[in-house]
Structures are given as structure tokens and as C-alpha cells.
Amino acid sequence: MLLRTEGRAGFVTLNRPRALNALTHAMVLAVDHALTAWADDPAVTTVVIEGAGERGLCAGGDIRAIHDDARAGGSASAAFWRDEYRLNARIARYPKPYVALMDGIVMGGGVGVSAHGSVRVVTDRSRVAMPETGIGFVPDVGGTHLLGRAPGELGTHLALTGTPVGAADALLTGLADHHVPAERLPALAGDVTRLPADEAVARHAEPPAPGVLAGRRAWIDHCYAAPTVEEIVDRLFETGEPAAKETATTLLAKSPTALKATLATLRRARTLATLEEVLDLEYRVSCAALTTADLVEGIRAQVVDKDRDPRWSPAKLTEVTDADVARYFAVPAGGDLGLAAALRAGDAAAREGGA
Asked: Which of 65, 126, 86 is nearest to 282 (CA)?
């Protein structure tokens, strides 16, 4: 983690380029500490988060550590998520402009430290995704909050498939606000040190190259409106659209349990009013996923052994029961996250103070 102030801006640089700047617990705590300090520093009027190297802002959390913790039946991952999700909530309510330079790969936890910011910038190199179902996990870090508010069923499509999107589709789905060509990022970073964030970004922003999701909206909205994952897959196969059929095949390679838990989480998230409520929900889901065989197996297949041949249990969507999904929403052994309750308590204290 590199922290520096330059002019009117505070810069957070995620500095693990060989690991695609994957987040560790210590990094999360360091970012939170910096945001706390800069919130009350009159010399810092804007915060910028960026990634070291040219490959991406952040590929997510350190899933090898999660794999090892899950295999050992430990509690380190739950502790990590507690602090990570609190950081996500802090970013969303940060009192100063929070500029996220979402260049290159931005996935999982990388979305959490960027897409909740107030000024979100993607580039022609951006690949933004929540790919958790491919490792037997469920989108977290407020991902179901963001995707649940995407137009139509685009967010459901991205949550279930984990498909990375480029700049245009990140803007369409509400994961970003502005497109700036990658070669202009150094100039943008320089302007942020002396200008208001919105003015600095406006100097460099331009329309992105066309995306793909707008042209697929009709079949995406129709297929993903189905009540179950099985019916979504059936509709995708029945559309006659080659891209839809490819998507159905993609879904059938994901963890069946993770797919059903993701759909249930996303639809619950849509009914919740605040990010804090969604993060509380996701914390329950993440802690439950930590105890499943699919999470360990998915990380093994994709990251540890890299054979890309996970053996899911259950292996078929039809074998995943309602009870299997319901257990994802149980209170964790260590208790709930409690972000929504803390927000309500803070609001009540503010009202009493104002009175």
C-alpha cells in the first residue's frame, strides 16, 4: 500500500502488481485508516484510488488465503470481510470526492473499493466483473447492491455469469460514471491535485467505444426474469440467439449452489433500501459460503491447481434444494455484521443532536 498527498489530493495506490493488487486484510485496514485521516484534513479535498502496474486496479481479495482458511475451518476470512464491507460502506458515504481509476482488471473486491465511490472512471482497458460464481462463491462487497440496480436484468446476467464488461457496458450498468482513455490517466491524476474532481475528469472524459449489452437487452431481460436458475437456462437455450445459448453453457459450468444462492441474494438485495442493509445480507451469505465444499473446490480448480475442472457438489441445478439456499441467509456463528443498525443509530443520534 502506498499513500501520498499531492496538492489538494490524497492518493491510495494498491501496490501488489504481481498479484494484480489483490486485497489483503492489512491493505483494507490501511485504506480505512487513510480515509479516516483525510476525512478531517482540510488540506485534502479529493481522494484518488489507483492500482500499481498496468494490468489493473485490483483483481479482488486474496482468495488463496480464503481457500486455506476455508479448508482449515478458520475465522480469518470472516474477520477480513467484516472490515472489508465496513470499508465499502465508508467509501459510499465518504464526505469528499472519491475518485476511482478503474483501469484494467477490476474484479470482486476491486469493485468494492471503486464502484461505491462518487467519481468512477473506466478506460478502454477496463474489464469490470463480479466473477464469484465461478469459484463457488456469491457476489459480495456490495456487488448485489450495484448489480441489483442495473437496468432491467443486466445485473442478474452479470452476477450469474461473472462476465467482464468494458467501459461502455460499465457505464450502462451503473458500475462507472466516466470514460477516460488510459493514456490520459496521468494527466487526469495531475489535474485532480489542483482542480475539483468533477472539473478534472470533465477535461479528459469522452464517449467510449460501443459495448455489447445494449444490443442483447431484449433476450437478457426476458430470460433472466424467470423465477429460477433452471428456467433462466431453459429460456436462454430456447431463444435462438447464439449468444444466449453460449451464455446458458457458461452458466452450466458454474457452481449450481452458488448460482441459486446468487439469484436469491440479488433479488433480496433489490428490496433493501441501503447499501448497509445489502452488506449485512452479503456478510451472512459469505460466511455461509465459507463452510461449503464448492468454495474450496472452486478456488482449487481456478487458482490453486488451475485445472479449470471443478467438481461441484451438488453437480446439477436440480439437485440444489431450497434448504441448501436458505442456509446462506442464516445468522453466522460470530453474529451479524450490523452495518444497518449502526447507520440507524447514527442517524438517530444526529437527529437528537440537531434537536
From this structure: 86
Domain tally, the chain: 1
Domain hosting 271: range is 2-348
Residues marked as catalytic:
61, 109, 132, 140
d(C-alpha 260, C-alpha 322), whole Å: 9
Handedness of CA 195, 59, 175, 339 (dihedral sign): negative
Which residues have C-beta within 8 Å of that of residue 353, sequence separation ≥ 6? none
- Cell (9 digits) for 208: 467510449
Q: Looking at residue 43, what DSSP letter applies?
A: T
Q: What is the DSSP string of 121-144?
A: EE-TT-EEE--GGGGT----TTHH
Residue 304 counted as domain residue:
yes
Q: What is the mean pLDDT of each run of 10 residues along the chain (355 residues)?
A: 97 96 97 98 98 96 93 94 98 98 98 98 98 97 98 98 98 98 98 98 98 98 98 97 97 98 98 98 98 96 95 97 97 96 84 72
